[in-house]
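User: tokens in, sequence out, please.
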């Protein structure tokens, strides 16, 4: 059983294809049974489950922490010459600390798809410098 003071800050749901097995509703229900006060989701490269997660958490009185495990291009997000996936990106987990962070996170995820897509939706250091306010960065996947 989890301690109420413990908060999962790096967790994948069914929206992390091939990597997450937790369904949002089941995840939030279990966190509620454990008495957890907050919970984060950090799906790979997307925020597809953010609204359902937010709403489910609010119904249970749990603080939702929205995040994303971003794919960060080794160089420029515009470079599509890497010879393999392992040369194309690294992982970086970002959490929204406030409304500004949420908007910056949504912007980064969107730009990853519209400007940086190569095997995965990638951002780069340029975008991270431009859209970093209100975000907390975790180093667990470096």
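Assistant: Sequence out:
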């Amino acid at each position: 059983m989890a301690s109420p003071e413990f908060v999962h800050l790096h967790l994948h749901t069914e929206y992390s294809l091939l990597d997450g097995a937790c369904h949002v509703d089941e995840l939030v229900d279990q966190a509620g049974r454990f008495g957890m006060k907050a919970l984060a989701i950090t799906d790979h490269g997307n925020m597809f489950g953010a609204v359902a997660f937010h709403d489910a958490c609010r119904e249970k009185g749990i603080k939702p922490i929205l995040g994303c495990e971003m794919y960060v291009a080794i160089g420029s997000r515009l470079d599509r010459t890497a010879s393999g996936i392992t040369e194309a990106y690294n992982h970086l987990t970002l959490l929204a600390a406030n409304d500004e962070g949420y908007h910056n996170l949504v912007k980064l995820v969107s730009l990853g798809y519209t400007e940086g897509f190569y095997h995965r939706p990638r951002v780069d250091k340029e975008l991270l410098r431009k859209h970093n306010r209100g975000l907390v960065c975790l180093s667990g996947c470096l």
